[in-house]
Amino acid sequence: ELKTVWVGQLSWNVDDAWLKSEFEEFGEVSSARVVMDRESGKSRGFGYVDFVNAADAKKASEDAQGKEVDGRALKVDLQKPRAPREQSENRARKFNDQRSEPSPVLFMGGLAWSLTEDDIWNAFGEHGEVTRVTLPKDPESGRPKGFGYVEYSEQASADKAIEALSGADLGGRPIRLDYAPPRNNDGGSPGGRGGFGGGRGGGRGGGGRGGGRGGGR
């Protein structure tokens, strides 16, 4: 049963308590959390609301769509569960994944071109505090290269993510995960699979995220 809804296009002014209060009209809310940017301390423009009952979550995903909060029309969707651990491990074995030495940085392979950094933050943020996402693009075509990196603030979060998401369907394709070498002091990766890329500004074009997902979902 799906009891959690994803809420996008949140105003930067909305905090956990405000988010919870906006959804209590649909049923009993057990918790609500706005995802924050670790570096700036600002809202990243989306969050999650957990309901006690699945029926209330479904109702909220339908009735709160487009609801105006602090001058912005919300985007709401049911948060689908990730693949169970056993299923993920079976998929990982199927793809012959051989894991490297543990690191808080994960390499992501087999990524669908349609996936955005928002999608990665959304999926991996469920397992811990993500500090950086990089999706390299071909300099000539501008197309994604089909791989990327996600960095967590803690090793334990990376461990949870690699167990939960290895082989999981993301953007219509099974994602392949492995540990990647941590960045060195220059912001790059000491060898490995081609480096982790630039910092948050560089990885996102330097423009930040603005007000969240915008119309991307």
UniProtKB/TrEMBL annotation:
Database matches in SMART domains: RRM
Matches recorded under PANTHER family: HETEROGENEOUS NUCLEAR RIBONUCLEOPROTEIN 87F-RELATED
Database matches in InterPro entries: Nucleotide-bd_a/b_plait_sf, RBD_domain_sf, RRM_dom, SLIRP/GR-RBP-like
Bias-annotated ranges (Gly residues): 188-217
Entry keywords, A to Z: RNA-binding
A molecular-function term among this protein's GO annotations: RNA binding
Name this polypeptide is given: RNA-binding domain-containing protein
Record domain RRM: where: 3-81, 104-182
Record region (Disordered): 59-101, 170-217
Biased composition (Basic and acidic residues): 59-100
Coiled-coil parts of chain: none
Keyword presence, RNA-binding: yes
